[in-house]
Structure formats: C-alpha cells, structure tokens
Amino acid sequence: MPKFKKVQLVLAGIFAILFFRFYHLQIYQHSKYETKAGNNSVRKISLHAPRGIIYDRNGIPIVDNRQIYDLSVIPFDVTNQFDYRMVSKRTGVSSIELKEKIAKGKKSFHRFRPIPIKRHINFETRSHLEENKLSLPGTIFSEFPARTYPVKAKLTHVLGYLRAVTELSVSIPNQELDYKLGDVFGFSGIERIYESILRGRDGTEFRLVDIYGIDHGVYQDNPGLQPTPGKALNLSIDSELQALIEDLFRGKKGAAICMMPQSGEVLAFVSAPDYDLNSFAGPVPIELWERWNTDSERPLLNRGIQGLYPPGSTFKLIGAALAKEESIVDKNWTVNCNGVYHLGDRDFHCWNNAGHGIVNMDKAIFQSCNIYFYHLIQKLSFNNWKAMAENFGFGATTGIDLLGEKGGLVPGKKYMNKKYGRYGWATGNLLTFIIGQGDILVTPIQVAQMMSIIATRGNTKTPHLLVDSPSENIIVSLKSTTWDFLQQATWNVVNHEDGTGKAAKVLGGEVHGKTGTAQNPHGENHSWFAGYLVKDGVPILSLAILVEHGGKGSVEAALISHKIFKYAQKNITL
Amino acid sequence: MLRKTLLYNTLLNKIIQVPDKIVIRWGMIFPVLILMCISFITLKYTSVNSSFFSSTFTKQIVWFGMGSVVFILAQWIRIQYFQEYAYHFYGILIILIGITYFMPVIGGSHRWIIFGPVSFQPSEIGKLLLVFVIARVLTDQKGKMNEIKLLLLILIMAIIPALMVFKQPDFGTAIVYGFIAIPMLYWSGIRSFYLFSVIAPFVSIISAFNIYFFSLWIGILVFVIYYNQPKITIGVSQFMVNIGCGIMSPFIWHNILYAHQKERILTLLNPTRDPHGAGYQVIQSIIAIGSGGIWGKGVGEGTQTQLRYLPVRDTDFIVSVIGEEMGLLGITVILVVFFTMLYWIIVYAGIISNRFSSLTLIGFASILFIHLAVNMGMTVGLLPVTGLPAPFLSYGGSFLLSCMLILALSTNIINHHI
C-alpha cells in the first residue's frame, strides 16, 4: 500500500473515533443530556397567590396586602461610584460589612447573581434608594407580599400575625398546605385559624434563565399554573367601635368584648396592652417577637380569652338566678346589712362598710350587697350553684374562633376536696364564691356571653368573629320569671338612682348591667362591668369590660361601658 | 540610493516569484468555504447581543477578508525561499519565543510579544517555521545520516521549542510542536518501529497512572519489540526506558506540571471532579453536544449556548455550539469536509516528488489535523482542555490568518510542482 494511503487510513480511523464519540453522545445518550440541558436553564418560579383581604362588618378593609421589598445587589455591576454610606444609612446595614460582602461577591463565580443586602424594606426606603439609582449601580429590588392595616383599629389579638417559613420553623400549623422555605403563614389569630381560606394557592411558572441568572422569558413548552388568590374574610368586627374602645383602653390593662347577643357575632374585641402590627414590614422579626414575649406587661397575652380573673360581683347574678329559679327566696326575704357578717371566727365584709340596711334581692343586686348573698348561699345547694354557673357558660371555653382560649374554673365539691382535703374547706369558702371571689376564674368573653344569655333570655349563639358564619345555638332554659327578674335587676343596676352601674347609663337608651370589683392578690381591685343595650325592644349589644387594677367596677369599667353604649345606641342596628 | 534599491530588489527576488499558473484546488478550498460558512452562521447567533461592528461575526468576516488577501498574495511567494532560509527561521523562532519570557504576563502566561500597539504570538507562526526546518533537515540528511541519529535530531529540534512554549505556559501549542514531527518523520521514510520507540515512553508515562493499563501497555510493548526483532541490547534498553518512564511519571506529575495543567489532565480523567473549575466547561460542552441530537436545536436556539452555560463558545468550544444547534448532522459535515481537505493535501504530497515540498505539505496537514482533533476531542471529553482552537471554525484573527496562510502556501506548493 502506498504511504499516502496508509496516512489517509490512519486519519480516517481517528476521524471515525471522533464521529462515534459524537454519535454516542448525540444519539445514544441524547435524552439524558436533553434532560440535563433542561435542568440547567429552566427554572421553576413560584407565583405568589395574594392573601385574602379581611374586611370588617361594614365592608371596610382592615387587613390588606401591600408590597414590601428585598434589596439585593449584583456584585458584578457594583462600581467605585457605589454609595455604601447611603445604603448603610437607609437600611442600617453597616457599610464595612456591605463592602466586604460585595468584594467577596465580585470574586465569586456567581458574581452576576444577586446577593441579598436587606430584607423587608418598605416602599418609602425603596423610593429613597431608587431616587439615587445612579450612585447605586447594581441594586435591584424584589417584591414580596406583606400585610398592611389601613384602619385605625388595631385589633391585634384577633387578627394575629404572619411568620415566614425558615429552616427552624418546625411547628407550622396547617402542614397540609405544603409550605416552601420563605413562604409566610398565619401564626396567630384569624390569620392562623382561617389560613386555608386566606392563603390561596401559589402558581408556578417555568422560565429560561442563563448562567448569570438573567431571565430570558417564559419557557414555551410548559405553561405552568396560575396562582389562585386567597378568599376574603368578612369579620363581624365594627372597626369604628373597635378603635373607640382601643382608645379608651390606652394606658390601661384589661379587656373588652362586645357582641351581638342574638347572633353571637363579636363587634369589638380589645385586649390591652397590645402591639402594633403596622410597626414592622413583613413577617414578625424574631427580636421584636422576643421583646413582646418577655415584656412584663405581656402584650402577647390575649386577655379577652386567655386572661383568668375572679369575676367579682358580676357573679352574683348566678346565685340570684338559682335562687329565683328554685323559688328559694322571694322579694320579701330580706337581710339586714350592717357592713359585716360573722361566720365562726371570721368576719366577712360588705364593700359598703356603713352597710346597706334592709336588703331584698333586687336591692342586693343593684346595690351589690355582699351580706345578702352571704346569707343566700347558705340556703342554696353548692352543686346546683355550680351547675347554674356552668349553664351560663362558665368553667368551659366558649368556642370562639380563636386559638388558645381558656375555660376558667368554677369550683365544685370534687375540686374543693381535692385541693383542700375533705375537711379543709367549709361554708366560708362558699361565701366568697357567691360574690365571685375565691377560686373562681373567668375570662372576659365568658362574662360577655353571660350577658348575651340574659339579654336573649337564654337563646344565643357561640361567640364568633366571622359575619354570617354558622355557629352553635346556646339554649339556657330557665323560668320566664327568672329571666324577668334578671333583666329587671340588671336594669336597676344602671337605672336605679342608687344603682352601682349608674355611670353606664345612656340617655334615651335601655342599658342593663352589673358591676364587679374583683379583689386579687396582685394589687388594686379589678374593675368589671358586664351589661347589654336594648334598642327598640331588641338587645343589640352585650359587653364585658375588665380593667385590671381599675378599682371599683362602678367607676372605671362602667364609664367605659357608657361610652360604648352611647356609640352603639347611635350606630349599631341589627 | 541605487545600492539600496539593488539590495531591495535582490531581496525581493528571493522572496517573490510570479507564479506560472494559479489553479484553484477545489478539493482543499471548497471544504474551507463550507467550514467558514458554518463558522459565520454560528458566530452570527452567538453574538446577537453585541452591536454589528463589535460582534465576533463581523470581525471574523473582516479577518476572513484579510485572510483571502493573504491567500492570494502568498501565491507570489517563492517557495524555495523557505527551504533556503529554514535554519534562519529556526533561529528566529527560538529567539522570538525566548523574548516572550521578558514580556508582561497576559491571562496567566507570557505568549505574546508586545511592541507598542502591535502584539503578536510568535508560537503561532512558529508552527510553520518548525515545519520548514524539519522538512529541510529531513531533505538534506536523506541517506546521509544514520536513521536513528536523524530521528533523534529531529525530535530534539522539535522538543526544544515545544518545551519553551510549554514553559510559557501553553500546553496546547506545545502538543502541536511535539506532534508535527511524527507524521513528517513517518513520511520521510523512517522505520515505523523507530517511531513507535519514540512514542512509546509517552504512552508509558500516561498509562503508569493506572496499573492495569500499564500492564496491558507493557504487554503490547513486549509484543511489538519481539515482532520487530531488534538487537537484544536495543530491545532490552527500550523495555527498560519504558518501565523507567512509568516509574518517573509520578515524579513528573508532582514536580514539573503546573497546577492548572494537572487540573486539566485530572479533569479529563473525571470531568465531574470540579463542576465549576475546568471540569465545568467540559460538562457543559458535553451536555450541549448531547442535547443537540441528530438535527440539533436549530441555529440560535441552543439553550446551552444562548443562555451562556457553555463557556468560550466563540473560540475553544465553538464545536459544542455546532453540536448543539446543528446536531450530529453539522458535526458530520465538519468531519467529512475536514477529512476531504486533508485527504487532498496528502494525495498531492504523495504526487509531488520534491522532497522538501512534499514534507512541508505533510507538516501543514499535521498542524491542521492536530488542532481539529485536539479541539474536538476536548469538547467531547476525550482529551484535556488545552485551549487549541478549531481551524476555520473558531473565532480568532491571527489563528485564522495562519490557517489561511497554511492553505495558501499548500496551494502555492502544489501549483508550483504540478
């Protein structure tokens, strides 16, 4: 064979090896590398579903969505003109740290990829930075959905707040909703209870992305999925009333619950002190949450459903109801109150040291005479008294649509035996129970519910926060005369010239109520007022007001109630 | 003045010679035109984002225009000039590469001679100069010198510039320098067994990294030595040299090679080793080629290319772009067309009786071949990433010019003799 043919043959051999290598990659392993090429360049992008808006009963939005922003920079685009000081001033990130971060990013393989500088900046900060775009080359903003609270009413403990899913969030409620890192979820309040309604469903989009992370538009071969926005919620809250009460509670501690007696719809729900949901952008920052958590004023505690208090004299209505229901006493049965009652070697005082003189049941309620009830309890069965309290909803959660509600405590024989031993307690304890002291613990919402029951003659519904939502009926069957008595007695409290609740009286309105002054081991007495307002023969608002260490119920709580009734008289209709 | 003109004329007469005839050798020209077309189409779509005048597409067209002028002008070069001054060229080559060591470092190596605004890479044109000198020695010493001595002389002549280039460091060009001597030696009629003996130590070095390959290789070595029946002393010493090389290679590995060169060789052995270093390029290149399939994704449609996952897509990895966008079809066209070009050069080399010219053609063909083979082998992960561009495909002005010059001189030689 001639030499040139040999050379050509060797050449052909080498070209054949090359060809078969290409053939192997492009035909035999084609699908494998096609997948790899797709993985390289096609990015799955999550499209945020806007969270449902929350309205009040009058259609005013109280929780809305807004955009907040994450500030990032592309290290490659940062030049010497970059104004580190301005970014530092606006975001609080130290400029040395910033410089180091960017310098490091510039050397990295991913120098075209944005690196995050500051999360959750608001629109104002963004605008400031945006205005100086020329001295901030390489900065970019990405949008991020957050909540905004456009009305004056804060409604903190009802609305609750959002948190972001991090690697550390082990206990996310509603796991089945399939969260991704960085998603937000309702951590408390309505946001949490109705998470599945509010959240909606995120969509997906497939986009072509180049090696630098630069977007090249939608990937045509896969249309992805459109996001489904979260559904709106209509709360039964009257945001104007809510704001009014929040104002009244400024600088105080306590709780106020207003609801519609017939439907159980909650009109206002205040727990003070609270915290401002508008004070931060995006999910609650951990440091802020820690601060609330360790605050001795306990702003995170939802006093309306979690605060346990002795009910004080408001609880006398239970004893009175039992006595009336079982016809144990009539209005001719009287007690002479001289301010103190001796039982064994103990003195039990009336709040009025001068004494109320001759007291019948009517007067015992509107004057809130303790001595009368000390006598009365001794004619009543302890078991029946407990049963009556439970009839009115005490000792159990009301079932309002909020998490963490406490049931309180109505002591019975079993409880007393257990706590004090079989012979460790006696009539003396009962004397304190009937006037709402001692071991009894109630929540403000239970007290409000009691007033709803009285106002509707035992035909109300479980308290709830959504308007027109189905809720359970609460039926309390008592004799008609018992209801008559309770309504009359509570009317007297406010309207009788010697009534303890006079301060709550509204001109031209029919206000019923009962004051309470609860002694407690922590200091000054708690001030209670529980009552309801009747308009055109129909009860339209029942409430419970508790001011911690507010002194006499006849003053602090009754005055607040007065303002609420005044508002309701004018503005609330069925 | 007159003397000056005379001197000038004499020099011109040495260099310039009006060609008897200019025949366009379509067997060589047509493949180049096809390759250039493929290159232009590819560059057109990889440079869509740059402005018209700054795009590699436009620049490459301009370079091709200049290359065409060079091609025509080169037909007037007196071909014997290269033979006459071959030793001078060799000296110039060594000096020029030597000068690069004193030049500033660009991109991690000193390959360039910078003279004011002008800069050039002497190792580029040096490939041609080396071909001339090897052809000259092989012509001059035919039948005069002992075959083995001649072989060693040629190898030393090739290895000196190769090592100098390797030190720059430019691994790719060093391979070219080392390689071109082998086909030329074969062509000059040196016994195949001697050539085998020369190549064998390199195979020993590489195979020594794997004990099984090394054992297999030693088996082949023993068989070849036995089959050729050399003197016992030669056979034994050859065997010993190869064993020695196998033992030496770890030493070379640890003490002579640069870190990035080691990196490239290691990456060849396992491309997934460092996905963002040298291996990254190979992985992306293989993905690009593999995802292209038979017909390719269409020009300008390759995701690997257009979304920049593929590195240096205009130059070193342009074959990967073609593989992705034009598929196996495009690759086959390249291979067929390139083979056709080399086929004809070899055919002419076989016909031409002038020994120097014939050897020069083989040397030229070797330059073009080794570039394409190493470049394509690199894109599919068969060979390490050496930075050798693909002739007539990769973007790059001076490289295209030297390829055009090779083609022009080949045409010149063929026309001169046939």
Task: Give your account of this protein's structure.
The complex is a heterodimer of chains A (574) and B (418). Chain A has 20 helices and 21 strands. In chain A, the strands form seven sheets. In chain A, strands 2, 3, 4, 5 and 10 form a five-stranded mixed β-sheet that branches. In chain A, strands 12-11-21-20-19 form a five-stranded antiparallel β-sheet. Chain A starts with a helix and ends with a helix. Chain B has helices at 2-15, 26-46, 56-73, 80-84, 86-100, 122-140, 147-167, 171-187, 192-207, 211-228, 232-255, 259-269, 278-292, 303-306, 318-325, 327-351, 355-379, 397-417; strands at residues 113-115, 118-120. Chain B is globular, with a radius of gyration of 22 Å. With 418 residues, chain B is mostly helical. Chain B has one domain (21-261, 276-417). Classes of the chains: A alpha+beta (574), B mainly alpha (418). Chain A binds chain B through residues 2-4, 7-8, 11-12, 14-15, 17-19, 21-23, 25-27, 29-30, 32-34, 36-38, 40-41, 109, 208-212, 216, and chain B through 183, 186-187, 276, 284, 286-294, 303-304, 306-309, 323, 327-328, 331-332, 335, 338-339, 342-343, 346-347, 349-350, 362, 369, 373, 376-377, 380, 382.
The total of helices of chain B stands at 18
Number of strands of chain B: 2
CATH architecture group name of the largest domain in chain A: 3-Layer(aba) Sandwich
Order of helices and strands of chain B: HHHHHEEHHHHHHHHHHHHH
Provide the β-strand percentage band of chain B: under 5%
- The CATH topology name of the largest domain in chain A reads Beta-lactamase
Sequence of strands across the biggest β-sheet of chain B:
1-2
User: Which descriptor suits the 3D outline of chain B?
Assistant: globular
Distance between the termini of chain B: 40 Å
Quaternary form: heterodimer
Q: Hey, which two chains have the biggest interface?
A: A-B, 35 and 41 residues
Strand fraction of chain A:
15-25%
Residue share in helix of chain B: over 70%
**CATH class (first level) name of the largest domain in chain A:** Alpha Beta
Estimate percent helicity of chain A.
Answer: 25-40%
